[in-house]
Amino acid sequence: MNVNDNGSIAEGGKQGMEVARVGGIPITHPTKLWFPEDRITKLEVAQHYAAVAPRMLPWLNQRLLTAERCPDGIEGGCFFEKNFSNNLPASIPTRAVPAESAGTNVHYVVGGSKETLLTLVNLGCIAIHVMNCQVGSLDQPDWLAFDLDPSSGQFCDAAKAASVLHKLLEEQKIRSFPKTTGGRGLHVLIPLRQGPNQEQVRLIARSVSQEMARRLPTMITVQVRKAKRQNCVFADWLRNAFGQTIVAPYSVRCHPGAPVSTPLDWDEVRQELNPSRFNIRTIQHRLEGNDPWADFWRSRQTMPKSPNAFADAES
What we know:
Layout: E1 2-3, E2 9-10, E3 19-22, E4 25-28, E5 33-35, E6 40-41, H1 42-60, E7 64-69, E8 79-81, E9 94-99, E10 104-110, H2 114-122, E11 125-130, E12 143-150, H3 155-171, E13 177-180, E14 186-191, H4 198-215, E15 220-221, E16 233-236, E17 246-247, H5 283-287, H6 309-313
Helix pairs in contact: 1-2, 3-4
């Protein structure tokens, strides 16, 4: 059978295969349960991405995408894929990037259109991950990101660490934007004026994370090895390098409940916030309100060049 965007059945399936059309893109096997406990289907995930596309696409535009694919749903096994050298329609843009470790090219999908986004969903993609740079300037990030990962698994710990980061950045008059990760952590992004290269941005991010850990050593750590984190929040600066990614704003995550990585205002970052409240079945209400990240690209700024600038800020 063939299922229209509104869920009605139409003619046209091949050999009895179920097919839906969402945003004009065919979605095969639309009734397959991708989140079995929640009875959420592949079709619902596609409809989510069609609905959030106006807000999500600016974060994918001209960026190399990594897809987290779960063709048989989250209980059927998931994997990351960035090399899409085959099985893509000719209309989906790709960019070949040399992979020095493999001695070959990686054919990334380039984001920016609803067609590209929904085509990836049809290929089994649930979560979309993005880099901090666009295809025309791969060594010049236009954002800096921190991933606040609580070893305790408690969002309240990530919120405490985020308040330290927010204060530290405000001391330097640097504007930042928080979002849920779709798990128990937080991402904090800083829009950048292009200029510094990846290594320069990474070093600045590291200095900020180190200062966070200095100010609250019982809560925040920069230890990369999980065994050494001692139940602290890992202030992860390592996302700031070519090839490193974060989950895109408004992406669904491959976790029970189909949580959505959701942009926040800073006054929403409270210890009592339950990030699971933002999910595929509640996000539409969020979209009807103001966009807390509406000013992101108008807030591009230059980070201090000195790695010591943040340590000096409190003194």
